[in-house]
Specification:
about 5% strand, Rna Polymerase Sigma Factor, Chain: A, mainly alpha, 2 domains, about 180 residues, Arc Repressor Mutant, subunit A
């Protein structure tokens, strides 16, 4: 069976997988699956369709596993977590004066949701706003705070948005 099918299956796989080493691995896996389940086939006239279905599924599994491997986050080390806590606590000292400078309606929305324990839905009920109005207020308040932070500091983040470093801009920050 190997001699009859391997060349055609390898061409089929190679057209769908760019790496020739991965194509070889997939081909090997296909034949392992064929060998493990060949006794289960009832209609030998359909054997080629069955083999190509195994091949298609194995290629799909390859891409599924590759995608999951790419999505796995790096394992943070303890120093990174401690560094983030230190950076965050330093930046928090700037946060209160920045929040105090927000227009009252945005300040209230940020204090109640971000620093308080209200959800945006609860904020809407408390302030007599629509849910979308409350969400809009919180989002605008966040955007204003972000703008203030960026005026005050140069912030460096990792790919996940975690602050990994910052420094105050050369001019004195008017917020903190």
């Amino acid at each position: 069976m190997w001699e009859d099918l391997s060349a055609n299956l390898k061409k089929y796989i190679s057209k769908r997988v760019s790496n020739s080493y991965d194509a070889e691995d997939i081909l090997q896996e296909v034949f392992l699956k064929i060998n493990a389940h060949i006794t289960e086939i009832k209609d030998t006239a359909q054997i080629y369709a069955w083999i190509y279905q195994i091949t298609r599924n194995t290629i799909i599994d390859y891409y599924r596993n590759k995608k999951q491997a790419e999505q796995l986050p790096d394992i943070p080390d303890e120093n990174t977590d401690a560094n983030q806590i230190e950076l965050s606590s330093e930046l928090i000292t700037c946060l209160k004066p920045m929040i105090d400078r927000l227009p009252e309606k945005y300040k209230q929305a940020i204090l109640l949701t971000e620093l308080g324990e209200l959800t945006q839905k609860e904020l809407a009920v408390k302030l007599g706003l629509s849910i979308s109005g409350a969400k809009s207020r919180v989002q605008r308040g966040r955007a204003m705070l972000k703008e203030m932070f960026l005026e005050c500091c140069l912030i460096q983040c990792d790919v996940y948005g975690h602050i990994i470093d910052y420094k105050h801009r050369e001019n004195d920050c008017k917020y903190c």
